[in-house]
Amino acid sequence: MDQDSPIDGRILLIQPYLQDFYSTSLRTLPLGLHYLIASLRRRFPSLQIDMIDALATSRKKTIPLPSAFHYLNRYYPNNDSTLHRLFRHYYHFGFTAEEVAQSIQEPIPLYIGISSLFTPYSSYTLEIARAIKKRYPQLIIVSGGSHATLHPASLLLDRNQGVASIDYILRGQAEESILEFTEFVLGQRPLYQVSNLLGRHNLFLPPVQKNLTTWKWEEIVTPQAPQASYPSFTYQRRKQASMLVGFSCPYQCAFCTVHAVFGKRYRRRDNQDILAQLIAMKQSGIEHINFEDDNFSAHRKQTVALLQEIIRLRLGLNFSAMNGLAYWMLDSNLIDFMKKAGFLSLNLSLVSTDEKLLKELHMGSSDE
Question: What is the pTM of this model?
Answer without folding.
Answer: 0.87
